[in-house]
Amino acid sequence: ELIARFARHECECSGASRHHRRPSQRYVARVERFVRHLKSRGVVSAGTEGRPRALPTPLVGFRAWMTSHRGATQRTIDHYEDRIERMLPALGSDPACYDAGLVRQALLREVRDRSCTYAKSFVTALRAFLRFLVAQGRCRPYLDRAVPTIREWKLSALPRYLEADDVDRVIASCDLSKPHGVRDRAVLLLLARLGLRAGDIVAMRPDDLDWEAGTVRVRGKGHKEVRLPLPQDAGEALAEYLVSARPSSHHERVFLCANAPVRPFATSAVVSTIVRFAIERAGITDPPSKGAHLLRHSAATAMLRSGASLDAIATVLRHESSDMTAYYAKVDLELLQLVAQPWPEGASC
Predict the structure, then answer these.
(1) Active-site option among 183, 197, 297, 318
(2) Which residue among the candidates 83, 127, 246, 319 is catalytic per the annotation?
(3) From CA 339, how far away is CA 334, in angstroms rounded?
(4) Considering only CA atoms, which of 265, 196, 277, 211 is closest in space to residue 242?
(5) Is 197 a catalytic residue?
(6) Which of 95, 126, 223, 329 could form a disulfide with 139 if both were Cys (CB 3.0 to 4.6 A apart)?
(7) CA nearest to 146, candidates 104, 118, 110, 105
(8) Active-site residue among 293, 297, 318, 327?
């Protein structure tokens, strides 16, 4: 309970610049590991687990409903609960009193003067919360339709990607004389060859690998599973990591932290950090982004330029909507020049 209150408190510490008033999830996770260490050393009683965090009344049952009906991960639910708790003071504790005006007012109070991405995260969480209340009969039906849409041009930007030569430089930047370098190379190859998400890397288990068939099972969003062919270089790098560099551990995850205590990656942010450090080592000074999704975009772009169809790319990337895959068609400038219409008044393109 003390750690839960620490995670929710508004930090007013001086001496350091903070982007957020509350401690980050990574920071709280470090505190939890320290408490577990104190228990293992006998400083804190191992039987003192503390009571579970008391949820506000409207949120009771929300986690179980999101897991069973929506297939959401625990991290996603944590994210939703954080957003909803911030709006509850304006919404009130009695869902039966919610109406369209109150819902809009509570949302706009939180997202005013914020970025579109930040605002959309509140919109998504609020809609899910209202649908849960409607399904439970605790608020007026169709109230989720009162949540306003954040206006943003759909698929307006170009994909952020690296050229093939730069991707090779990023992969080659790993120091194979060190265990974490062997691990990082396997991670980068899986991201760059199969376009995996960072969460796919974190969740990968040894039994997902079928070495005889040369495939890897990927658990995507919504608990959907698919088997993808394992490329030769990625498979060799993965095998080398499992045989010679992976620490001996009982954890049922493929990729583990190199520093003690040995444990699986806590969040997908660890994978993005591996990519960011590799980009810096490769000497790429102005990348379009520095996260794991950069290599996913690069993989899709490379497949498109090598002649793969959009349907094939959608299968590999596991897109539910064809619009998401069509997003990558904008990088094929040579093909777009063939279909570009002449400028009005007779001027050529």
Answers:
(1) 197
(2) 319
(3) 9
(4) 211
(5) yes
(6) 95
(7) 104
(8) 293
Name the residue with tokens 């990625």. Answer: 234
Task: Measure the CA–CA gap between 72 and 306, rounded to whole angstroms.
Answer: 35
Catalytic site includes residue 319? yes
Provide the b/e sequence for 189-227 (b: ≥16 CB within 10 Å): bbbbbbbbbbbbbbbbeeebbeeeeebbebbbeeeeeee
Band the pLDDT of 266: cuts 50, 70, 90: confident
Which one of 109, 219, 221, 290 is the catalytic residue?
221
- Our answer to whether residue 328 is catalytic in this structure is yes
Is 318 one of the catalytic residues? no
Q: What is the pLDDT of residues 57-77, one digit of tens each?
A: 899 899 999 998 888 888 889
Give every CB contact of residue 333 below 8 A, 6+ residues apart in sequence: none
Copy the structure tokens of residue 318. Answer: 């596991």
Dist. CA 185–CA 255, nearest whole Å: 12
Taking only the tens place, the pLDDT of each residue in 157-206 is: 777 888 899 999 999 999 999 999 999 999 999 999 999 999 999 999 99
pTM of the full predicted structure? 0.68
